[in-house]
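tl;dr need the bound structure. longer version: we got a ligand (nicotinamide-adenine-dinucleotide) that a collaborator sent over and nobodys looked at where it sits. i said id run it. heres the input, straight from their email, havent touched it
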Amino acid sequence: MATIGFIGLGNMGGPMARNLLKAGHKLKAFDLVQSSLDAARAAGAETVSSAAAAAQGVEAVITMLPAGKHVRQVYEESVLAAANTGTLLIDSSTIDVETARAVSAAATKAGHAMVDAPVSGGVGGAEAATLTFMVGGAAEAFERARPLLEKMGKTIVHAGTAGAGQAAKICNNMILGISMVAVCEGFALAEKLGLDKQKLFDISSKSSGQCWSMTSYCPVPGPVPTSPANRDYKAGFTAEMMLKDLRLAQEAAHTVGAATPMGAAAASLYTLFVNAGHKAVDFSGIMRMMRGD
Ligand code: NAD
């Protein structure tokens, strides 16, 4: 069993850290928030007072931080210098591809092995250890990371070289944001045409309009009882998080000159929805805006 430094014990990092503890690993855990540290200690982690202390004398360091600027800061100011040469570094935060590649290059230069390993599956997946990890980095680093990721997730995919995990994450979530808006538009139009939502679901979920946003996460109450629409759009995956990922996709598209007109439209729609005060609502709650509520 390994000793692992874990930095960032929030909504996702907290339960991911607990699953590593359950699997028998030792953790040196750090977060800026005292209540998160207390929860990690109660779950069996050793808590430390800085990111550098979490990275010292461990076999692997996992970061689960809000955005690219936090990852860059924690790596540049603490992790890269504090970790023993050859330490495995795993960043599971969702961040921009450019920062992921820059941090990975700096890690390699400092003599460490690094992978970007963003996740899909949300807080429920983090708690149940059923996350999907999309991993970018050298094959050798991926093989070292895999046994640890398997304790926190169910599907572990090597997406390619450094940054490929983040690229996979934003492409997937851009498709998700676009498809959610499309499903909302379809149900809003059906309502205006007097077509029963269950009938549209019964037909479309078995026809060419079928997609995850409809069959697993239907944005109207009724057809999929587990979807957030049945609990007043309580998140789930917040509109703010979706907007973050859509913006990351737009940034990446601009960097490489890719045309993503539907992604741009989805980003604009989620900006309107978030600015209207709905940032904490589930992202499928954009149904209300599409309906004109
Ligand atoms: P969160 O805000 O709940 O947790 C982030 C944690 O990082 C906080 O506890 C914060 O105190 C800590 N932190 C910030 N700066 C720090 C620093 N310098 N040193 C130590 N700790 C620091 O966010 P989250 O929901 O856990 O998400 C984490 C990442 O996972 C994000 O990049 C997010 O986009 C991604 N993600 C989230 C979800 C989700 O459903 N919540 C799903 C997939 C991916």
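gonna send this back to them w/ a short note. The chain has a mean pLDDT of 97.
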